[in-house]
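Objective 1.3, modelling of assemblies. Example input:
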Amino acid sequence: MATDRFPIEAGHIMLFARSIGDANSIYHDADAAAETEPGHIIPPPTFVQASAQFTDGYVLRPVIGEPWFGSGKEPTGVKRESSGGGGGTGFHAEQHYEYHEPVKPGDVLKAVDKPGKSWSREGRRGGTLNFSESITEYYNQDGVLVVTARSVGVQTSRVVE
Amino acid sequence: MALSKANLNVGDQHSEQVVENLTRTQIIQYAGASGDYNPLHTDEIFTTKVAGYPTVFAHGMLSMGMTGKMLTNYVGDGRLTKYGVRFVSQVWPGDSLTATATIEAIREEDGVNLVDLSVSTVNQDGTEVVKGSATARIDD
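Predicted structure (tokens):
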């Protein structure tokens, strides 16, 4: 998920850590974090995924003023090819991270997408499975590569049983 | 606290329950924090009537994030060099997950001590939901 500006913010890290049920003080308490080996608040290992919040046109975030495919009182009928409505569904199949350098609040990351492979196979539960890989490199404000992410998505041809 | 090479053996395991009775509210928290608002995870009407699933289910990345809590508790803060998973089965509201890391190798690379771990998270029925691996820096 490419983005020119992914600001690393302490409050965002705290909310993210809460959402994964992680009470580790290094994610929310700057004083406690100062006493740890990193010496500052750090994000949890999967935090860079939240760069989606800062990615223009990210398809799984409602856009103000535009129809959304989730329901109100009843289904809206808005079709979104990648997320159901046509029988098949897009899923996240794999996620891999390499951590090169520390990340801390105040950093401003830039995420650059690189093309990956695609392949297909017959699945047991969801019909034909079409896989596609994407690689995202996260650089900090000094141009240092801090995290490499490799994501594999799968599109099923029907509902997974 | 970081791990010490002197105290580790291949086959050692560390296990934690990372969630008990996963709530829909926690899934919503994850959607809000991560920015993945796919209604499949939070919108019962869409998920059952439009997408055709029995109920909403957790983001794979929520399961990976909860599994990562077990890993960082084990290897220490800021010690992971690699962490990757496959999402093997869906995780549903009400599930309780237990994550386990197993030491596969203890090695040195460019003068740095490393431990390679296999990672597996299972639900209350023993069904594996996340399968992966991780590498962390360790002390002498």
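Residues 108 and 114 of chain B are 6 Å apart (CA to CA).
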